[in-house]
Give the backbone structure.
Amino acid sequence: MLKIFSREDVIKKISSEILERIRPDERELEEARRIYEILREELRPYFEDVNASIQLHGSIEKGTALKGDLDLDVFILIPKELGKEWIRREFIKRARKALSKYHVEERYAEHPYLRIKIDDKFEADVVPGLKIDDPRETETAVDRTPFHTQYIKKMLREDQRDEVRLLKRFMKGVGVYGAEVKIGGFSGYVAELLIVKYGSFIKVIEEAAESWREPVIITLTNEDPKVLKRFFQGSSFILPDPVDPRRNAGAAVRSETLARFILAARAFLKDPSENFFFPEKPDMKIIMGDAEKICFKVFELDLVKEESPDNVWGQLLRIKRRIYNVLDSEGYDPVYIDVFWDEKSKPLIYLELPTEYCVKGYLYKVVEGPPIYSHEAVRFIEKQLSQDEGFWIKDNRLYGFRRKSLDNVLRIIRENSNIGVLRCCNPIDPKDLFTRSFDEEYVLWLGETILKIPRYMNRSF
């Protein structure tokens, strides 16, 4: 007799199979802790004179790490009375000396920190902060981290650590995991807090699919949602930090990323599959076939000096918004715009336009002018005639045709792409877009950009 599986059975089966792939084994965890102990002993002599505390935090310490993603978060906490100025003056200098045998990369957040590579398997972020007794005394963004670790270790049951892993992997799979500017999504800590709130991965998915509406307001205690909405005005996702309720733990979540997660949650409940956790690379032939049907232009931007990834991404997103808004307000009808940067090669701007631009080199469209009683009416008529175009009256308003040329589109891109460390711009042959990289992140981005289908979905959805 043919057995019929319920949706719940399918989700349980998928969850079990995914957990086998993402739960780190004891050998991996022991190796990570061994490396931490080595790093701690190497750092200790350079910071013991100031009575610094060297601690392991992050997902390894909280028991929520994913297999193959066991990066170490090593915090060097100095006495509060030394202050941020000491960190700026001394931390990088001392930490570099302590870790000179490793490949060291200087990174930037509120303060500089170091990222080191170890044995081609592990990375460690070595981060400075201040020792505080109360999370409300924080002076730097990382000072609360020990309190976050304590809270999660206290609040999560052992079985719920796997629920966090499922949620994190789902968020990674659908492209919404990470509080960095590039993603504008859910941090690991927020994923952990969601499991504390709802209890399981599937409960989070069901809640997101059925109940979340922007602004999403989630409380772990009894805060009044109306008060929180006013206090965190402008936030798309409000989740007060339980160790410091004045802080919105979900402040990084952008409106678009929140929408992506809600859509993915609904899609998963409709048709659950492993593809939400581990999306397949789209077929490049299909991408190239669809690309032949549309009109798009791609540009490389130059980075004129080194800058933190968050700062560069902030500038890229400003360029993206600026170009789209200018083209839209001036009647060029942009279809879609996006940016891509892998932090290794040059950033890209992708702009999709109505197909007439690629066929004719211009878009011919009707523009609405002022009412005939307006003083601007004469100016509108003069402009129409100067461009060898006529005009007509409909009701009491002037209308006319305008030619929107591709050359002007490209000029607008050039004029609006110089922000911060980014300089415009080198046009790319569209064919080069498909051979530029075969890295998974790039191919997934290219597939979503050209096909306009989320990475976890196919056309038979």
Remarks:
- The two ends are 28 Å apart (CA to CA).
- The first strand starts at residue 53 and ends at 57.
- Residues 26-47 form the longest helix (22 residues).
